[in-house]
Fold this protein.
Amino acid sequence: MENQSFLNTPLIHTPHLKTDVESRLQCTDTTGTGFIRSCYIANQCLPRSGWLALILLAITAYMSFCTAILLKRCMQADPYIRSYQDIAELAFGKEFRLIVHVLMNMELYLVAVGLLIIEGDTLHKLFPNFVVNLGGLRLGGELFSVVVTALVILPSALLTDLGVLSYVFAMGAAAIIIIIVSILFTGVSGGVGFDGKSQLLIMGGFPTSIALFIACFGGHPVVPTVYISMKNKHQFTMVMLISFLFNNVIYISIAVVGYLMYGSDVQSQITLNLPTRELSSKLAIYTTLAIPVCRYALVMTPVASSIETGLMNKNGDKRSIRLLTRIALLISVAVTACIFPYFESLMAVVGSICVVLASFLLPCCCYLKISGTYRKWSYELVGIIWIIIFGTVAGVVGTYASISDLVGKM
């Protein structure tokens, strides 16, 4: 399938240097969103679609793995490719590079909104009766928890040197394991059990489940960074395979355990179902509480940097621009989280729009354009067309279902 003579022929003769903003975008793509995908998104699919939805998860994972390999082949087309944006520019020109850049920023922005929703819901879970009186005005509930979260996050959001928060890269995997073990322990010895009512198939929930499953595999913009950083690049396929298998084990574990414990009553975040009196539950809840606070700055720094770069070209007061930009972004994220406080619906929108484009459609289209595979029929072309059809249908159906769900809850 792989045309070696084509891959060894440089198609770009001037190197594209990856900007600092693009580098941060790719690094934070999985750092900020992996925790959300692992702990919450997959958790909502089985209550919506039943046990057979696990087949859909396997199909989505396999297609996502294939598109990651297509990105590798795009990079092999020219040694100067260093980023996802480079691939887009090579295939469709500079305008498309800008589109991809905006798409990645949009995904990170929506993920930041999701982080505030998680934090607000978790705070309300711990302190359901917390109310503040301001001149006769009573403030409380999930929305007020989001405002409190924004105030807590504000100091870290103003940081420009994120070296202080670099430890969260390692915290991610540890947090996921802690949460899974704590949830299992709660089910075994916390009096909850694994007797939740479940169903084999729920057809009405499949459109949203497709969007949520796709959102679980949204790390493709970081694939070029992984590839160019590897000393033995021939091991890339095996690394991707192990990574996808590991992620699937995590997703299935969270989804199955949550469905067995609470059935169709499982909430958008499984930690919201846990009894607060149990030590294991408290450990899972407090771990959930800590991670979004740390990760918000990592997620939003690339977005802020993109805006700051444009503004600084017109104004020399860099410090004021940075402060105002980051404060304005935090306010807008908090307002969005208050207007749309529905985590699973928001993540379904992310999956059906951002991830469908970045992880399914764009890798296929870029590879077809760069390689010229579309010029003649082959088994590879048929497989790529099927992925494009799946991504297009999933994107359209998922977007309609998720937006309808979001509007219906307002």
In short: The two ends are 49 Å apart (CA to CA).
